[in-house]
């Protein structure tokens, strides 16, 4: 598929926080996101650009977001900002975050869509979902419910 619109090269999520040191420690040191060089002036002008692997955008209706909350066992709170990070080991990621002081909102649970999900409360009001894929995209392609939005029956 050829598009006349240029494709983005990078997704950058910007989290503004009053407790920069806590957020930096959590995302860089606890979650292991490597930091790259970034420009700031002096004093309280601080920034850190952290790598989180491949970035995707998940668009979801309020109904879908509520369904995911139900599956994960997390309370539904509309409008809550959430980051989802794919990890090799959800249980270990939650344990590391919890030892670093993050509140566990929902412990690891195997989802109907074959991932192991858990959620913690991160800094600056953001929730962090850890997910571990339990099957490949190719395996999912043969299962009911997995399709693109334009092919989905309504």
UniProtKB/TrEMBL annotation:
<dbReference type="InterPro" id="IPR037523">
    <property type="entry name" value="VOC_core"/>
</dbReference>
<protein>
    <submittedName>
        <fullName>Uncharacterized conserved protein PhnB, glyoxalase superfamily</fullName>
    </submittedName>
</protein>
<dbReference type="InterPro" id="IPR004360">
    <property type="entry name" value="Glyas_Fos-R_dOase_dom"/>
</dbReference>
<dbReference type="InterPro" id="IPR029068">
    <property type="entry name" value="Glyas_Bleomycin-R_OHBP_Dase"/>
</dbReference>
<feature type="domain" description="VOC">
    <location>
        <begin position="7"/>
        <end position="133"/>
    </location>
</feature>
<dbReference type="Pfam" id="PF00903">
    <property type="entry name" value="Glyoxalase"/>
</dbReference>
